[in-house]
Amino acid sequence: MTAPASTLREPQGGAQTVDLVQRFPGIVSVDERPGYTGFFVEKDKLVEVATAIRDEFGFDLLTAVTAVDYLPDNKMEVVYHAYKTTGGPGLVFRVQVERVDPIEVPSLIDVYPGADLQEREAWDLFGIKFTGHPDLRRILMWEGYEGHPLRKDWQEPFFEEDFKPFKSRWPEGKHVLAEEKNPFKDNLKFPQDFDPEKWIPENDEMLYQSLKRYTVESEDGMGTDRIVVNMGPQHPSTHGVFRAAITLDGETIAGLKPVVGYLHRNHDKIGERNTFLQNMPYTDRLDYFNSMSNNLAYAITVEKLMNIPVAERAEYIRVIMAELSRIQNHLVFIGMLLNDLGAMYTPALYAFEERELILDIFEEVSGARMMCNYLRFGGVVRDVTPNLMHKIKDLVFDRLPAKTDEMERLLSENEVLVSRLQGVKVVDAETAIKYSVTGPVLRAAGVPYDLRRADPYSIYDRFDFDVVTRPSGDMMDNYLIRVDEIRQSLRILEQAVKQIPDGPINSQKPQYQVRVPAGEAYGRIESPKGELAFYVVSNGKPNPWRYHVRPASFVNITCLEQMCIGTKIADFVALLGMLDIVMGELDR
Amino acid sequence: MYGKGILKGLSVTWKRFWDTYLEDISWMLSGKKRYFTEEGIRHRSSKHTRGIFTVQYPEEQLITPEEFRFVPFLVYDEGAEGKKEVRCTSCGICAKVCPPQCIWIVRSNDPNTGRPIPEPTEFYIDADICMNCGFCSEYCPFDAIKMDHDFDIASYSRNVYGMEKLLKPASYYAGIRPENYTREEEARKAKEAAKAAKAAAKAA
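Above: the input entities. Below: the structure tokens describing the complete assembly.
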């Protein structure tokens, strides 16, 4: 079967054009492991090199910071992915250190403040101390937790084997419930000499300590107290179990720390136990509003590693599904934003009606409304039937444009809404880039950075659409940009449903065990919430050695504190709503 | 004029409010029932829906599309005298591909020779762990395990399904997935015909 396939992608990187080695001889060296790109940087000079990368080479957006545990080599590696907001390929640089505690790597928080939460995550899950980080606490696991779960020698409570498939399932698979093998109590690991009776939770103490730096003496000599208010984790407006510890000066926010991890399930570790294919349905559960986009990001990453083409028809189907997903996400965003602002349910239910119709399409093609699990490496699972294509066309040409207009008629000119949104700053362009904010929030601040154009993936370079931006970055712009993006998505869809060719839907034979050569890949897409990326390292075995998700929601809330300081507490809910977070993706 | 935007917005909600009644009246005049009929539900989940669009579960249920997938079941063919010919050969591909590892299979062994025979002795699906991804049915080479449509499985205890619960006849499968069934049957017949032709060619 020879599929008319889109051309093979260039091997990742292209970063070799950057002459980092010449600039830092002896400090920087090219990573020559097969399948890898980028540079090794000496640990001690990391900050210096990173400053040069940002200022001299222009890589102003640090998208991902993550670590890899190379247990066989007894090395721990921190990987940085930097990009230019003007577009183009990225730069991968990494630090390798001996895997002996304490593992220390200098923090990049002064060069790229966006590294804040991601470094905390690497500390939490790998135990890498980032020296110079002002607030290096655990972020996803709880304080007092024993061990660092993403290390390769760490085992979870119900540990059975390092890699799936487990041998106990076949051919002698007598069913046992996990809890029967592993009764309660024994499945928790405590630090030695730990006594729950005497334990004083220190994480809250540390959290409030980190907020203390905002204490200022009052200016007029009057003694005023700052109070700490905890919003969440159970709060109707925090979109899930999200907690923010907020220091208040009167009604003004003086300091804020996001507290996350309540929904943490160590997606990365599960992903490393799984085979490559088995991860596909797990990605659905990240941003459960956009499982099609999540599938796409993961498929792109593994296809990069495998270096296989994608069937032409499948590329179009992927684009159609991803854009439909974006439309329903933005519609629900608008509806839920109004919910947050107090316009209970009318806009939200109007949005849900259209979403329902889009989910019907997903259900018909993939078998599930939300957990689609639709993409495979090299293509998609099943074809879009002519009947379904007709349905999609109905939505794209008739219904959705009209309903978007209706949504605008309902809201955009409403004086109450406008006076609530206009002029309330969300974030300006400079801060957004500094804090690695991506997605509509960045574009609403005036930065035309859309991965569909800046670093085209799939077949987006064939479609005619605009990267919409808005000038001011206030709340109104953040609302309007979603409406604009719905229209642009419709434009893409109109072209895609017209141009879609016939043909096979997968360039590969269906196989449950894919062969993935050793190497690394960083695949990123413009998900409706920002840049969604997967970093996958393979060692040639059936399971990924490292599987990392770079979720848009998680990195975007790095900026939440900057957004909120100086605004009123009443704006916090709306500001959080603007970031459009989903806890499934944020906590992983 | 201040308030114009609000009025514009209100006109939208006003229109939506009346749409339900207009729709009801027009269905009534044409003598059709909008509620509690398949036609009505289909209309409410089509692009023409306007006014109220909710489906009143459980009296009404959304029409499940053919590809809808829920916890899998095992297909058996009805042989002579009601004998259940289980399609499963206990090859173990479903157990290997299952992402949450909820499938447990005991392979049968011939009591005399000790060699494996293609039939499962026991087959478990832990429905509490199953994530309804559909990989098992997708990669099964014998069309022996298929995804079900029966999603109403709430219970007071754990849902660990054994063979007796999992086995469902091929006619049931043909009922819930007619298109898939026909396609697979055709493929199987074509394969058998090719095999027979090959055997005939060899004999000749």
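Note for the figure: DSSP finds 20 helices and 15 strands in chain A.
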